[in-house]
Every structure is written in C-alpha cells, then in structure tokens.
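Please fill in the sequence for the structure shown.

STRUCTURE ENCODING:
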C-alpha cells in the first residue's frame, strides 16, 4: 500500500511540475503571435515574460518558508489553484498591460510549485528512493519544458495564443482539484513563521549563498535568451509557429534526457562535468546566432539545453545538502535567483535586440554560461574538501 501511495505522489507531483514548467516554455513560440495580436514590438511583448519571472522570483521567497511552516502539500495545492486561475485570465487579456498583470499573478502562484514539489520529495522519501523520486519528478518537469514549444506552437497556429493559455488553465485547474483530494497533508517542520529567522540561518551559510547566487547568472543566460529564440528562428529560417515550436522542443528534450542522466554522469566524471557543461553551453549559445541551417541550430539548442540541466541539477542538489532541514527555504532561494535573473535578462535583452540584433544576446549568454560552469566547478571542489 505504501508503494502505491508513493507512486501516486510521484505521479501527482510530476504532472503538476510538467504543467508549470510547460507554462514557462510556452512563451518563446507564442511571443511572435502575442506581439502581432496586441500590435506591439516583440521587445515590448517580452515584458509579459519579465512580469512573470520577477514575481516568480520574489514570491518564491515567501512560498518556501510557508511550506516549511504550514505543510508542503497545503501550500502546493493552493499554488496550483492560483496558477490555474491566472492561466485562464491570461486568455482574456485585452492589451499588454492586462496580460502582464495576469502573468504576474501566474508567476506569484506558480513559483511555489517547483521548490515545494522538490522539497516534498525530500521530506517524504529516504535514501536511494529519494534520488529516484526526485529524478522522476524532475524528469516530468523537464518533459513539460520539452513538449511546451511544440504544443504551444501548434495550438497557437490553429487557434491563437489565447487558446494555449485557456487550454493550460483548464488542465491546471483539473489537476489542482485532484491534488486537493489526493495529496496527504502533513504539519509543517517549523513551529513559527519568522522570515528574518528562517532566512537568517540560510543567509549565514556562506557556501549556500555562493552556490545559489550563481543561479542568477544562469537564469539570465538561459531564460533571458530563450525568450527570443522563437523570433530568431522565424527571422533566420522563416518558420511558422508549428515549425518554431518543434525546433525549440529540442532544447527541452535535451534538458529532459540530460536531467535523467546527470547523476550518473556526475558520479563518473565528478565536478569536471560542470566545466564541460560551461564549455558546451558557451559554444552552443555563442554559435547559434551565426547559423542559417536548421540542423546546426538544432545542434546548438541541444548543446545549450544539456549544459543548462547539468549545471542546474547539480547546483540544486548541492544547495539542499547544505541546509537539509529547510529544503523549502533553500529551494526558494534557488528559484529566486534563477527567475530574477531570467526576468532581468528578458528585459535587458529586449533592449539589446532593438539596438544591436540577436548576436549580442547569444554571445552574452555564452559568456555567462561559461563563467557559471567554471566558477561552480571551482566552488564545489572547494566545498567538498
């Protein structure tokens, strides 16, 4: 019976993570359609990305401690309902301001899903089963990212970007109701909610701050650049939304497959794997703007997606180990840095695109990815000694 409950929990968390990660990755192919429908430049339409990611980063600082205090299942269920309702509102947006407002609400609730799900796995499972459960949930999450561009691009091609968010909202709401009935509610792990005290311990851990702080640069490099990949593919290859979505799916597939193998690869190669990821990501991002071939662009997308997940999964696992009693808080700090970096990156890259085109965006991403891979390799080697 316990095995069945564990399996159901993994499946439930995996589906929730799939839908939320898909929400993050819909944007790249949809941004073209949104800009045309709302009659704004694509750099302005990208404001909806920034207005999603910044609340995502800010509110995650609250959601993690709330989960530690009141129970992870309770907070996760509430966040699922909030994100679902916000997705439905996205479909009703009548101008850029309303869309940005609705996406802000979506980010404020959606921010809880990744850190709280991962923290719930850490709280529920022990030993080897914890790594297996974490891998399964993360795999579903990255599968959502892999499928989102193709799903979003196809739906948008036939029914418009609003239908994408409407469909997503209905699916998210259905899963939220199931979670309300199925997730086992447990009490929190801390007796009082004092953000100053909760984060005081975390911020006093210098190694933890160094590790999660580098996620800001990783978020800037990856999410801030990925936002404009759809427009770049349209500009370079002339693809429609379906073609764009299918091509960008390769980035997500690389993260999904790479995520499932990251643990095995790290055991074999150690932290040198992160240096390799930095080099691979730097080369992939740095070359993509130059290609006019779908095959070469595809290879760059695969390389950048693999580099991202190798760095990301290692940093998250390391961060949790540095403060194991407050996994929710740790994941909040990690998500805060990653998505704040992504929001700032999307905003600044919009201005860079208007002034200088695509090349500086991807060259900056390449530089940041290489720096992050190199610095994290040195840092984790130092921590492990």
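FILLED IN BY: designer on duty
SEQUENCE:
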């Amino acid at each position: 019976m316990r095995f069945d409950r564990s399996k159901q929990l993994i499946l439930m968390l995996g589906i929730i993570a799939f839908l939320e990660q898909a929400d993050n990755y819909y944007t790249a192919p949809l941004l073209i359609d949104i800009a045309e429908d709302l009659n704004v430049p694509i750099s302005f339409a990208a404001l909806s990305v920034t207005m999603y990611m910044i609340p995502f980063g800010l509110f995650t600082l609250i959601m993690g401690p709330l989960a530690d205090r009141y129970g992870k299942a309770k907070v996760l269920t509430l966040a699922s309902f909030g994100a679902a309702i916000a997705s439905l509102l996205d479909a009703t947006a009548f101008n850029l301001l309303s869309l940005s407002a609705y996406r802000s609400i979506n980010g404020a609730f959606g921010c809880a899903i990744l850190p709280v799900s991962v923290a719930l796995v850490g709280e529920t499972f022990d030993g080897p089963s914890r790594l297996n459960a974490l891998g399964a949930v993360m795999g579903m999450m990255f599968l959502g990212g892999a499928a989102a561009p193709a799903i979003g691009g196809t739906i948008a091609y036939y029914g418009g970007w609003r239908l994408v968010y409407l469909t997503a909202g209905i699916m998210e709401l259905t899963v939220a109701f199931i979670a309300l009935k199925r997730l086992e509610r447990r009490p929190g792990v801390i007796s009082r909610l004092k953000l100053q005290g909760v984060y005081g311990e975390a911020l006093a851990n210098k190694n933890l701050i160094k590790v999660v702080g580098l996620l800001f640069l990783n978020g800037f490099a990856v999410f801030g650049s990925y936002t404009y990949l759809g427009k770049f593919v349209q500009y370079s290859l002339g693809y429609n939304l379906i073609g764009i979505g299918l091509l960008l799916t390769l980035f997500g597939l690389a993260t999904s497959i790479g995520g499932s193998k990251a643990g095995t690869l790290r055991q074999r190669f150690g932290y040198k794997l992160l240096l390799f990821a930095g080099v691979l990501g730097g080369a992939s991002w740095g070359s993509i703007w130059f290609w006019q071939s779908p095959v070469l662009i595809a290879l760059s997308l695969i390389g950048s997606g693999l580099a991202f997940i190798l760095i990301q999964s290692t940093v998250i696992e390391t961060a949790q180990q540095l403060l194991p009693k407050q996994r929710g808080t740790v994941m909040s700090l990690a998500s805060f840095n990653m998505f704040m970096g992504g929001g700032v990156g999307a905003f600044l890259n919009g201005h860079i695109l208007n002034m200088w085109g695509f090349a500086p965006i991807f060259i900056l991403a390449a530089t940041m990815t290489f720096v992050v891979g190199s610095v994290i390799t040195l840092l984790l080697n130092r921590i492990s000694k």
